Amino acid sequence: MINLQKPRRAIGRYFAEPLVKLISKTSITPNGLTWIGLIIAVVAAVLAATGHLFAAGWVVAFSGLFDMLDGSLARLKNQSTKFGAVLDSTLDRVGEAVALLGLTIYYLQNPSLTGILLTGLTLIASQLVSYIRARAEAINVNCEVGVFTRPERIVILSLGLLFSRFNPVLLIALGLMALLSWITAGQRLFYVWQKTK
Q: Is the whole model's pTM more than 0.85, yes or no?
């Protein structure tokens, strides 16, 4: 089964490390960074809902950066806690859902049944990808497999928003996110089945 966690973490560390070192000199805590990341995701959702898609693309990318920083800061400052890990995971799910809700509002105001459907399918599948991993780990199955997780979703959504004026780039991005997220959910479920049968 495909496991891309190591290359994802290596890339994340490469981009996050210089910023984390700067932030570690301030009084900002890892949990504080997690909350800031959620606030940025809400800003992205508002921008998307009001039709400012290009700006929303940049803000989504920026919120993804915070997703990498909080865990790295916790490790650097030796402030990793079980609650911090749960908070990070929870607010990541909320932030992603809020961003997709913003797009749903946009497609309601600029009627596109395809856009609403793809956004809904992406929302369901992205939550499933994370839920299956969490549920698997609750029964002691390490489930980091899959081709398309949160970092890839952030990149594709950002690009879709940034190039949304070139019709139908955003719909293609959402379609890709929906398809690959459902495939990843299936991969994880199959992996857990293999490990527990």
A: no
